[in-house]
Structure formats: C-alpha cells, structure tokens
Amino acid sequence: MHIPDGLMDPVVWVIGFIVAVPILIAAFKRLGREADEDRIPFMAVLAAGIFVAQMLNFPVAGGTTGHLIGAALAVVLVGPAAAMAVLTVVIVIQSLFFGDGGITALGLNLLNMAVVAPLVSSLVYAASRRNLKASIFAASWLSVFLAAFATAIELSVSFLISGGTYGITPFIALPAMLGYNAVIGVAEGIITVGVWAFISQVAPEIAKAGKEEVAQ
Amino acid sequence: MKRGPAVYLAAIAVVFAILLPLYYVFSYGKNDSLERTIEEGNSNQGGSTYNAPFSYGGSYLESLVFGILGMVLVFAVFYALFLVMRKRRMRHE
Question: What is the pLDDT of residue A168?
Fold first, then answer.
C-alpha cells in the first residue's frame, strides 16, 4: 500500500504532509513526555519486527499480494501515540533507505498507515468491553480497510483535480482498493490476534500495559 | 523486557529467515493491492524522484541481508529518537 512518486497530484501529496506531520509531531511529543522508559526497548523491537513483517507479502487472490500494516498490533501492544511513532520510523526508513514508497508521497503514506490506521485501531480497541480477540480482529480489519479507503480517495481526488494526469478514476480506485484490502484485512486480523495472543501468554504485562495506554 | 533487545531482534531475524522462502514461492514478483489498482486504472506511475541506497533484494540471501539491515536500522533510529526526546525533556525540567 506504499504510494510511489509521481502517482498523486502535487496538491494532494502536499496536503498529505500538512495533515500528517503535525499529528505525528504531537504523537512523538506525547511519547517523549509520558512514555515509560522501560518500554522503549520493546517499542523499538516492535518497530523492527513490523519492518520485516511488511517485507513479507502474502498472496491474496487473483495474483495479488498484501502485507501486514501492523498498526493494530502496535496499538494493542504499546498504545496509539507510540504506535504512530513506531509506524512513522518504519515508513520513513522504508522510503529513504529502501525506496519502498515515494519521497513526495511520504506524507500520504504516513497519513494512511501511521495516522489513519492507528487511530481507527485505537478507537475500535478502546470501545471493546468483552471479547478482546474479536475487537482486535475488528480493529485490524478496519485499520487496513480505512487506510485503503483513504488511499483510494487520494487517488480519486488526484485524478479529478488533475483532469486524469495523476491518480486513478474513482470508478476503479475505490472498488479495487477496497476489494483487495477487504481480504488483506482478514489476514491482518488473523496475524494480529495470533501475535497478541502469543504475547499475552508469554508476557501478559505487555498486553495489559497496551490496553491501559489505549484506555487513556 | 526480561531479556536484552538483541535476543528479541535475533529471534525476529530467525522467524524472518524461516518465512522468507514462502514469500519467494508465493508472492515474489506479484503486484500488491495498490500496484494492481494502478495496473487496472492504466495509470502512468511517473518516475522516481529519489534513488534509495538499498532495495529489498531479488534473491533470498539479498532480502535476508537487507531485511536484517533494515530491522537494525529501524531499531537504532527509534531508540536514538527516544534518547533525543529524553535529553530535551531533561533540559526543560
């Protein structure tokens, strides 16, 4: 889901930076102010794990592949502000060092995967009362689906304001992005619940701290 | 964390090394959802405005090396950012 350079209208990718950067600065400030220092090594390991997980695309349907975003996993383990910081570091390094996602599109990639996906995940997870596994699955699926929806909207707006020079017509962008990512979201949900269940067994204090962070 | 971060990073690297062949068997060279949407929309992707120093590689060994390099880089940058933030916080207090 990493947007490359040259796909989006300049107005759209500039707006991506304008929206994403202040939110992420606020997340980093909150992390610096409130984070428990003992949890920082875990957050850094989590960021490293999400980086390699995003490299491992899995087959979806019809020759298409998808990969974990990891936003919901980060939210349930370290809370929303730390999750945003984790994903920001992952996405910036992917773009700057590995060419995965464009430089001009960095603001939009951050907006979709480091802002929208963690926010959606934390809202769903915070609302959960009973079945934690079901709410983590729902948070994961919705985070992927709404990040894809945001990408589809950006593609559509780029197409409409540029007269077709950039982006993709909404008649293709919306059904294609939402269709593929509805399936990818199921895999994201299964992986997230699996990893969360494993960590809850071997280190229950991490899962508990994550839930408390989301509740704040 | 009960053990040092290096132990967990090593564990992630081992899991990555085990799962990477599956990626090469089932997913390598296939488009992801956005690439597929671009293909279906017949969109002109334009050119890259920046050449990154590394890539994810084109073979198991290359991907393994670059994956571990990226993993270490992400870990180090996240940790370094936190140290900078802590230093700033201590200066303000």
Answer: 95
